[in-house]
């Protein structure tokens, strides 16, 4: 096996950057870190400005059918999946390190795990690994690695990204080895979402770290410690991560020889590289890009639900909303279809109807959202005293579509004689303002991840875990708690449908859009939508070239 680590990586620099993660601020709904702009990226940008190649030829000069080449803004800083949990880093390590299992809306797909069974009281999860699993160095994957990985997450000084597998709130989860392939996890209180949370855990090998849970700056982070269908071939820091298929993989054999994550930080340079056949995967950074490649020869556009909710919220600490009719006036004044069409375009988002995303396990598409009624909105605005006022709306300048959405809301509220003062705040300061008890603004635009189980993130958005300025009723809080404690999936479905409807009835927030993750591939790539999970791809063994 070819294993090369090319490029000097100073230990001090590595230690400082290990916890940062990787991401792209232009990627809707992704947690982000700084982007790398190197000289190669600048040359790509200049090349992009000079290129005149017609889009109709996209993909015609494909870069070798034995390699899937994906552009990224920066390489991962290390190869430890516990330390690379941000969106772009997780994407790069997805073919390299497998999860235990994945709980989807329709099924549970098992990877490293053979099964996970829950006790009748809902407190003990018995995780059993598949037999004959191997790390990329050939050593066996066992229950000892599960215990070690859990220990690393308990050590919160590590910056490991899976602490929710070993803590429920402030209380620690207990775990013990049963045999070489089995581990029991015992949670301190019932939490139906824990099944999905535990499944996302990616293991690291105890032997590679000599059992030392102080992993943040360990040398092993830069070695091949993977368990997935692709193993390390080359890691050129700041240039590329090259993975090759792992011949001893326990699952279906990979059908593509190699997966390359190539640093091309500029979106226009990425487009040129795709048209020239240098890459065969292209993130669609805008609706214009998506529309351009819809009919391009040799290309195929893919649209997957991103599992996030973009929404408008009103600040309960602001006196403007003492009369709830003022909130109702705003909601009735908005034309959601016009906002989504104008801000997101035809490809990048769809209308939202509940506080759960369309990728949530318990999303109910039958819930009716808000409809525009300008006459009713004018009457409510007059009655509540909102008409004639100037109100302030904050939005995050580092999140996509926020400014465009804010401008459209500003325009629409003029129809009911409400002036909106817009104030954009960058990501570093946004939550210091809107997730506090400040009362000097009325509205804000925000978004959150809502894929999987609603107890994972959605509940935290409304129960005060992150923000405290949403006026969540005790009845809704009780429904979240009831859904958390109920293990029967059908019962949970009934509970969460009631919760989604009640959030609409109580004017909790105004869900605006469910953003799409759009990407373009060469039309010879098959299996790109085998599993519609993001970040893509959940299972790289399902990909092939025709």
Model description:
By secondary structure, the chain is an alpha+beta fold. It has three domains: 4-81 and 233-280 and 524-545, no CATH class; 101-209, Dipeptide-binding Protein, domain 1 (Alpha-Beta Complex); 308-516, Dipeptide-binding Protein, domain 3, CATH 3.10.105.10. It has 15 helices and 23 strands. The strands form six sheets. Strands 14, 15, 16, 17, 18, 19, 20 and 21 form an eight-stranded mixed β-sheet that branches. Strands 1-11-12-13-2 form a five-stranded mixed β-sheet, with no helix packed on it. It has a four-stranded antiparallel β-sheet with strand order 5-6-10-9, covered by helices on one side. Helix 11 (402-413) links the parallel strand 18 and strand 19 (419-425). Helix 2 crosses helix 6 (267-275), helix 8 (324-333) packs antiparallel against helix 10 and helix 14 (474-485) runs antiparallel to helix 15 (489-505). It starts with a strand and ends with a strand.
Secondary structure layout:
Blueprint: E1 4-6, H1 11-17, H2 39-50, E2 67-72, H3 87-93, E3 101-103, E4 108-110, E5 113-118, E6 124-129, H4 143-154, E7 167-168, E8 171-172, E9 174-179, E10 182-186, H5 194-199, E11 230-236, E12 240-245, E13 258-263, H6 267-275, E14 281-283, H7 287-294, E15 299-305, E16 308-314, H8 324-333, H9 336-344, E17 349-351, H10 374-384, E18 390-396, H11 402-413, E19 419-425, H12 427-434, E20 443-449, H13 458-462, H14 474-485, H15 489-505, E21 510-522, E22 525-526, E23 544-545
Parallel strand pairs: 1-11, 2-13, 18-19, 18-20
Antiparallel strand pairs: 3-4, 5-6, 6-10, 7-8, 9-10, 11-12, 12-13, 14-21, 15-21, 16-20, 16-21, 17-21, 22-23
Helix pairs in contact: 2-6, 8-10, 9-11, 14-15
């Amino acid at each position: 096996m070819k294993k090369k680590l090319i490029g000097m990586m100073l230990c001090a620099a590595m230690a400082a950057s290990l916890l940062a993660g990787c991401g792209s601020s232009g990627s809707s709904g992704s947690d982000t870190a700084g982007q790398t702009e190197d000289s190669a990226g600048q040359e790509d940008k200049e090349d992009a400005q000079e290129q005149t190649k017609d889009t109709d030829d996209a993909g015609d000069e494909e870069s070798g059918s034995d390699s899937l080449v994906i552009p990224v803004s920066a390489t991962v800083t290390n190869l430890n999946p516990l330390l690379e949990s941000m969106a772009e880093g997780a994407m790069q390590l997805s073919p390299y390190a497998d999860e235990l299992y994945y709980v989807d809306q329709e099924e549970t797909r098992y990877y490293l795990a053979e099964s996970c069974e829950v006790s009748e009281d809902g407190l003990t999860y018995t995780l059993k690994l598949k037999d004959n699993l191997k790390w990329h160095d050939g050593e066996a994957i066992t229950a000892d690695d599960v215990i070690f990985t859990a220990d690393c997450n308990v050590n919160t000084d590590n910056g490991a990204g899976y602490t929710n597998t070993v803590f429920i709130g402030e209380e620690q989860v207990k775990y013990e080895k049963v045999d070489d392939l089995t581990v029991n996890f015992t949670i301190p209180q019932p939490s139906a979402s824990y099944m999905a949370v535990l499944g996302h855990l990616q293991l690291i090998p105890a032997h590679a770290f000599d059992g030392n849970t102080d992993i943040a700056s360990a040398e092993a982070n830069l070695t091949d410690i993977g368990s997935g269908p692709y193993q390390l071939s080359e890691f050129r820091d700041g240039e590329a991560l090259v993975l090759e298929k792992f011949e001893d993989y326990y699952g279906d054999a990979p059908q593509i020889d190699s997966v390359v994550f190539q640093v091309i930080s500029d979106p226009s340079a990425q487009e040129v590289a795709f048209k020239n056949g240098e890459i065969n995967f292209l993130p669609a950074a805008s609706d214009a890009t998506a529309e351009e490649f819809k009919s391009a020869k040799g290309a195929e556009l893919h649209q997957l639900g991103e599992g996030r909710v973009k929404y408008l919220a009103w600040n309960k600490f602001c006196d403007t909303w003492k009369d709830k009719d003022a909130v109702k006036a705003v909601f009735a004044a908005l034309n959601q279809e016009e906002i989504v069409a104008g801000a997101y375009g035809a490809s990048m988002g769809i209308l939202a109807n509940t506080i759960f995303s369309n990728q949530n396990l318990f999303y109910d598409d039958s819930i009716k959202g808000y409809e525009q009624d300008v006459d009713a909105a004018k009457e409510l605005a007059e009655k509540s005293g909102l008409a004639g006022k100037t109100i302030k709306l904050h939005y995050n300048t580092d999140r996509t579509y926020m400014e465009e959405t804010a401008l459209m809301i500003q325009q629409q509220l003029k129809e009911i004689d409400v002036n909106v003062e817009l104030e954009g705040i960058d990501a570093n300061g946004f939550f210091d303002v809107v997730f506090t008890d400040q009362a000097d603004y009325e509205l804000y635009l925000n978004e959150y991840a809502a894929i999987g189980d609603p107890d994972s993130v959605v509940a935290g958005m409304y129960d005060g875990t992150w923000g405290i300025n949403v006026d969540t009723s005790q009845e809704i809080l009780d429904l979240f708690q009831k859904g958390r404690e109920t293990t029967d999936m059908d019962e949970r479905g009934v509970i969460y449908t009631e919760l989604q409807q009640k959030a609409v009835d109580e004017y909790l927030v105004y869900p605006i859009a469910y953003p799409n993750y759009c990407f373009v591939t060469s039309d010879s790539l098959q299996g790109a939508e085998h599993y519609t999970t993001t970040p893509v791809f959940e299972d790289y063994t399902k990909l092939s070239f025709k």
